[in-house]
Amino acid sequence: MSQSLATIVLAAAGAVMVIAGLVFFRHPRWLLSWLKGMAVFGVILAGLYVLVIAVNLTSYRSLVGLQTVATISTQRQAEQIWQVTLQSMGETVAVRTLQGDQWQIDARIMRFSGPFRWLDIAPGYRLEQLSGRYTSLEQERSAPRTAIGLAESIWPDLWQWDQQFNLPFVEAVGGNMTFMPMRDGAVFEVKLSSTGLAAVPVNEQARAAVQFWDQ
Hints:
This protein folds into two domains: 3-57, no CATH class; 63-214, no CATH class. It is elongated. It is an alpha+beta fold. The protein has helices spanning 3-26, 28-57, 115-118, 137-142, 158-165, 204-214; strands at 61-62, 67-78, 81-88, 93-99, 102-112, 124-133, 147-149, 170-176, 180-181, 186-193, 196-201. It is 39% helix and 35% strand.
């Protein structure tokens, strides 16, 4: 579109808007009715948004400071096959089988701002997935991989919506850690803050695995 044509189109649009505004002022009842309707519509949308947040909070746990959210132990079953025991805080023990040389756990973190911050709503978290990985790049590309979901899906998924649309007053954060080595009898504590996850070796087997891995 040329500049001259754009100027004509914009001028016409502006004139239409000005005339429409003047018509509203000539009939103030229309203006007041429209403003009331928009206000009611805005209140309904805000109420629905608050309800969506409330529904999603039912699947999250409160996160205050740095806290231990899970304990993970590994037992060797066969070559690159491990029995992984996950004890989440306040949850039943889950025993899963992972393939590979390393494990990783992912979490979703939901932080709040604006009026929700004024209400002192603590960030929420939920453990999302436990997965295995091979140290060999060739195996990582071709060998079977294990990824186990740790949470049920929820709709509407506010965390996914914020990732796509950058919603107001909420901040969806993906919390994950680097892959940790698996060793027979190793025990790790998974710690979480509002910025992400960290794994801490608890026993000698876990510390030896991390030390050998870092070399």
